[in-house]
Amino acid sequence: MNNAFKALADGTRRKILSLLKEKDMTAGEIAEQFNMSKPSISQHLKILKNADLVSDEKKGQYVVYSLNATVFQELVSWALDFVEKGDEQK
């Protein structure tokens, strides 16, 4: 979960996740949405993948990235548990 929070700390990575929430995309399609180099986008995707926030699948000559909702469910569950425990202490 620590890697997920570190990955979410960056605005570019949050925007990538928002794009992937709408539809699966290739790295090139993602890069078109930003004013930065493709290697920079690839680095952001690598961090998101290492945090299990995105998954990738090779389709022909392209790699298609998609959102991994399971990790988000774990983060939300942790946050709700954290809030509920805080409310119990009041």
UniProtKB/TrEMBL annotation:
SMART domains: HTH_ARSR. GO terms for molecular function: DNA binding; DNA-binding transcription factor activity. InterPro entries: ArsR-like_HTH (IPR011991), HTH_ArsR_DNA-bd_dom (IPR001845), HTH_MetalResp_TranReg (IPR051081), SdpR-like_repress (IPR047796), WH-like_DNA-bd_sf (IPR036388), WH_DNA-bd_sf (IPR036390). It comes from the Bacteria. Pfam families: HTH_5. Keywords: DNA-binding, Transcription, Transcription regulation. Coiled coil: none annotated. This is Transcriptional regulator.
